[in-house]
Amino acid sequence: MKRIGLLGGSFDPVHVAHIAVANAAQAALDLAQLQLIPAAHPWQRGPLQASPQQRLDMLALAIAAHPGLAINPLEIKRGGTTYTVDTLHALPQDQSYVWLLGADQLQNFCTWKNWRDIALSVDLAVVARPGSQLTVPTELADWLNRHQRHLQDLPFSPMAISASDIRLRLSQGRSTAGLLDPAVAEYIATHQLYR
């Protein structure tokens, strides 16, 4: 059974930290592939600025040189509000999955729709994020212990890069050097995104 990593997100825009996390996870977790899953309409976020197709285009450019990474457009094709549990139910069941989440997402994991179903159907791996403590909420820790499941801590040095900061820089005409894949930066400039 293939072991597949799953990294969901808005990717508005995809940046170098997303790709670094994906590569680190693929190596550390011995994954056959890591799939990046762009959200259609994340229920815990405001409206996205780039269109679904633009975000898919930017992801394709960002992973072009990384053969172990792939895009899974399932949530965008489905459309509507994006819930992780629905995505997991729609995936092929002949593979095993590891869901990557940032330490910031870990803190509110127990607010996710049907979070217990998520924790039963996939392994969870958490990635350190700047400014977020890597602590497991008590409710989740108790549930994992009762069900003999564990949370994997992915070895990764946090990178102080965020899509919201990149969007702000672009809206102010400031440099994003080193934050975006050059092909993604060129795409953003050509399509005049985030202005």
Task: Walk me through the topology.
Blueprint: E1 3-9, H1 16-28, E2 33-38, E3 41-42, H2 52-63, E4 69-71, H3 74-78, E5 81-82, H4 84-90, E6 96-102, H5 103-107, H6 115-121, E7 123-127, H7 138-146, E8 151-154, H8 163-171, H9 182-191
Parallel strand pairs: 1-2, 1-6, 2-4, 3-5, 6-7, 7-8
Task: Please provide a brief summary of the model.
This protein has 195 residues and is α/β, with parallel strands linked by helices. 39% of the residues lie in helices and 18% in strands. It is built from nine helices and eight strands.
Descriptors:
alpha/beta; 6-stranded parallel sheet; single chain; 9 helices; 195 residues
Description:
This protein is an alpha/beta fold and 195 residues long. Helix content is 39%, strand content 18%. The chain is built from nine helices and eight strands. It has helices at residues 16-28, 52-63, 74-78, 84-90, 103-107, 115-121, 138-146, 163-171, 182-191, and strands at residues 3-9, 33-38, 41-42, 69-71, 81-82, 96-102, 123-127, 151-154. The strands form two sheets. It has a six-stranded parallel beta sheet with strand order 4-2-1-6-7-8, with helices on both faces. A two-stranded parallel ribbon has the order 3-5. Helix 7 (138-146) links the parallel strand 7 (123-127) and strand 8. The protein is globular, with a radius of gyration of 16 Å. The N and C termini lie far apart (45 Å). The model has no long low-confidence stretch (mean pLDDT 93).
